[in-house]
């Protein structure tokens, strides 16, 4: 079988790029795969995550392009690539790219799979994403979501002819380490944008710090993005300089989890929540808002972490204080998370 993956680019530190790389690398070693191609719209450099050398990369443009203005050229390019590479299957990473990918492959023998990484209700106000989902749901052969909840959202939100399947992202293997109950570092990881909710985590952490049990704890928010200056202002305004730090995004994310005693996940919405399975693989228990899709598929509430109703900030504060005040609870949840993360292994 000859497979192509279509993606904006593979050169970022996001969960989408990490998940795509994991699947590509897993397929590269599969005996049933004759050829594996990565078709990037506009590469931004080498892959951040190691990519198997057997995967061939092809680019549409050396510069960022508008999917709307470049639509006719993208359709012709992808159709030509599918023919030139003799592809049997094309996996379209994110529904926005179905805008050109689905028309490009219409009428061919290529099986079209649209792999969506945002939940159905999260479109960021982009009409292109909504239209891409319409095309995918009606004209693609398959739509793959990351959670069962999202399958239900697709079914409730539109008429779907494509086969809907929920396949969670692949987790890193559980690490053979011992949880250090003496660790007093909480981490929150993600792009510095409103979606990730760091703007509400900082004031929340200020309230947590009023409790004597929290006096030795620190919070590190790891990531880059346009909200950096605003978040730095919040840290200063709440008197948290030295107690909350913004750490640049890193390709050594394992070092972040290795040093952590708690993961805070304040997202407003997600497609999955790759941070939670990464943390679990290191045995880092989490406190998470139970946003529309993702956290409840990953965290076993009360066993591997704590789920808090979305937008209930006071409850999130209580959950954090419960965690940091109970070393035995964190150790127990750490062991359970490390075991449970096998549900998301490549073998499954």
UniProtKB/TrEMBL annotation:
<feature type="domain" description="Glycosyl transferase family 1">
    <location>
        <begin position="180"/>
        <end position="339"/>
    </location>
</feature>
<keyword id="KW-0808">Transferase</keyword>
<protein>
    <submittedName>
        <fullName>Glycosyltransferase family 4 protein</fullName>
    </submittedName>
</protein>
<dbReference type="InterPro" id="IPR001296">
    <property type="entry name" value="Glyco_trans_1"/>
</dbReference>
<dbReference type="Pfam" id="PF00534">
    <property type="entry name" value="Glycos_transf_1"/>
</dbReference>
<dbReference type="GO" id="GO:0016757">
    <property type="term" value="F:glycosyltransferase activity"/>
</dbReference>
């Amino acid at each position: 079988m000859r497979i192509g993956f279509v993606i904006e680019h593979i050169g970022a530190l996001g969960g989408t790029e990490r998940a795509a790389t994991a699947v590509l690398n897993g397929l590269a070693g599969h005996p049933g795969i004759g050829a594996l191609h990565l078709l990037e719209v506009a590469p931004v450099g080498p892959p951040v995550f190691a990519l198997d050398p057997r995967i061939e990369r092809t680019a549409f443009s050396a510069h960022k392009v508008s999917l709307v203005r470049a639509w006719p050229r993208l359709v012709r390019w992808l159709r030509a690539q599918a023919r030139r590479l003799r592809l049997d299957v094309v996996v379209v990473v994110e529904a926005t790219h179905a805008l050109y990918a689905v028309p490009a492959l219409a009428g061919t023998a290529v099986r079209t799979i649209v792999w969506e990484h945002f939940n159905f209700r999260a479109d960021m106000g982009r009409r292109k994403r909504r239209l891409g989902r319409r095309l995918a749901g009606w004209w693609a052969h398959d739509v793959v979501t990351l959670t069962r909840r999202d399958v239900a959202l697709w079914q409730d939100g539109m008429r779907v002819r494509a086969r809907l399947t929920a396949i969670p992202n692949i987790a890193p293997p559980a690490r053979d380490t011992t949880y250090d109950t003496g660790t007093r570092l909480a981490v929150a990881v993600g792009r510095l944008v409103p979606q990730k909710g760091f703007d509400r985590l900082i004031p929340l952490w200020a309230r947590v710090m009023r409790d004597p049990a929290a006096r030795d704890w620190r919070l590190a928010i790891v990531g880059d993005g346009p909200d950096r200056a605003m978040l730095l202002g919040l840290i200063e305004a709440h008197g948290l300089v030295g107690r909350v730090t913004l750490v640049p995004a890193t390709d050594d994310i394992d070092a972040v989890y290795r040093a952590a005693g708690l993961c805070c996940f304040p997202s407003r919405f997600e497609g999955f929540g790759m941070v939670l399975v990464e943390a679990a693989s290191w045995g880092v228990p989490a406190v998470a808002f139970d946003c529309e899709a993702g956290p409840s598929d990953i965290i076993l509430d009360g066993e591997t972490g704590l789920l808090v109703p979305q937008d209930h900030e006071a409850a999130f504060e209580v959950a954090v204080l419960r965690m940091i005040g109970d070393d035995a609870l964190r150790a127990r949840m750490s062991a359970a998370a490390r075991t449970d993360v096998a549900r998301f292994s490549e073998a499954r």
